[in-house]
Amino acid sequence: MATFNEIKEEALKFRELLENCDKSKTKLVIDCFPVMSCKLSSMLLAYHFLKLWPQLELKGVMAATGKNNEITHYWLEIGEIVIDITGDQYNIISARELNKEIVRNRPFTSVHVSNKKESHLYKLFKIQEKELLVYGFPTIRESFIEKMELGYSQLLNQTKNT
Q1: Which residues lie below 8 Å from residue 90, measured CB to CB, with a gap of 6+?
Q2: The whole model's pTM is what?
């Protein structure tokens, strides 16, 4: 089982890969990263975690807030640990598009790894759904798994070439 510090260290390293990659050439990493990237980035991070620790059970958390739940977010959890690698998008998005609670809690760090009980995510968002993510991604479409594999290898290979 991965320790809290190992999880945090890998999340920080992975976020750096996402920031520094050529977004026009990396599958599942979009130009406006980290804005509107929470699920894609979290899925790539889940892929990374399961490469390192195949026995791990992760949960992908879909959450929402605001009028008609129009402000959405997605992050990972491992047991009681919350991992969010795109929360800083809420520093960039215009305050007009957010609710007062999110704006009041700015700035957000680019990588948030915390115990669930201490995480601001549970104060700002209502959980909509949690999906189990395990090695091999049995609940995910094969075509998306292929995109994750490609995006992941592109992220790792870009760092070797620079």
Answers
A1: 98, 102, 106, 108
A2: 0.95
